Amino acid sequence: MAPMDKQLNSFSNLVEALSKLPSIGKKSALKMAYTLCIDDVALGLNIAESINEALHSTRKCNICGGLSEGEVCHICVDSMRSNGKLCIVGHPKDIFLIESLKEFFGKYCVLESIKDFDFEALIKRIEKEKIEEIIFAFAPSLSSDVLITHLQDKLAHLNLKFTKIAQGVPSNVNLDNIDHFSLSKAFIYRVDL
């Protein structure tokens, strides 16, 4: 794609910024920028305002690590979800995917990095919330299997039931790249470990 006119610095900056989003190339970024700045200015302003608001109000929940607009997310404060089940996921966005299935009504724990993870806090949480089952909802891969085994070892003394989502899900694929039906079935037919 030919470089843009030097007089269009702000537009060029917008195209460049949009192209840094996952799965958005330069051509798509250019189309999006044109739509937001020329074709539908109201949409552009609405998106800009929504981004600004989200940047200032979205944070990670102090309990589960999911997204929240306060110190604690709506799932962690919901007493109806205290059913003894804790689903461990690898990313906050995975919570949205599982919630969209409307199959799981327990609580969550986000484990993005084993290096920075506080196992003592997890153990205290399991005891406090009377967790009986740990469900691992990681995309199938060798590294996920190693992580699950490590977590099971760390939590073995708590007499928990360990399950993971069923293997109808392709290996080495992120959960957000799996169709709704397959993820739903994998979650419903999770297997004991």
Can you give a write-up of this model?
- With 193 residues, the protein is an alpha/beta fold.
- The chain folds into two domains: 9-57, Helicase, Ruva Protein, domain 3 (Orthogonal Bundle), CATH 1.10.8; 60-192, Dna Topoisomerase Vi A Subunit, Chain: A, domain 2.
- It is 46% helix and 12% strand.
- It is built from eight helices and seven strands, in the order αααββαβαβαβαβαβ.
- The protein has helices spanning 9-19, 26-39, 41-57, 74-77, 92-101, 119-128, 142-155, 180-188, and strands spanning 59-60, 67-68, 85-89, 107-110, 133-137, 161-164, 191-192.
- It has a five-stranded mixed beta sheet with strand order 4-3-5-6-7. It has a two-stranded antiparallel sheet with strand order 1-2.
- The longest helix is centred in the first third of the chain and has 17 residues, at 41-57.
- It is elongated, with a radius of gyration of 21 Å.
- The termini are far apart.
- The mean pLDDT is 88.
CATH class of the largest domain: Alpha Beta
Task: Provide a count of the helices.
Answer: 8
End-to-end distance: 51 Å
**Which class best fits the helix and strand makeup?**
alpha/beta
Helix content: 40-55%
The arrangement of helices and strands along the chain is: HHHEEHEHEHEHEHE
Low-confidence stretches: none
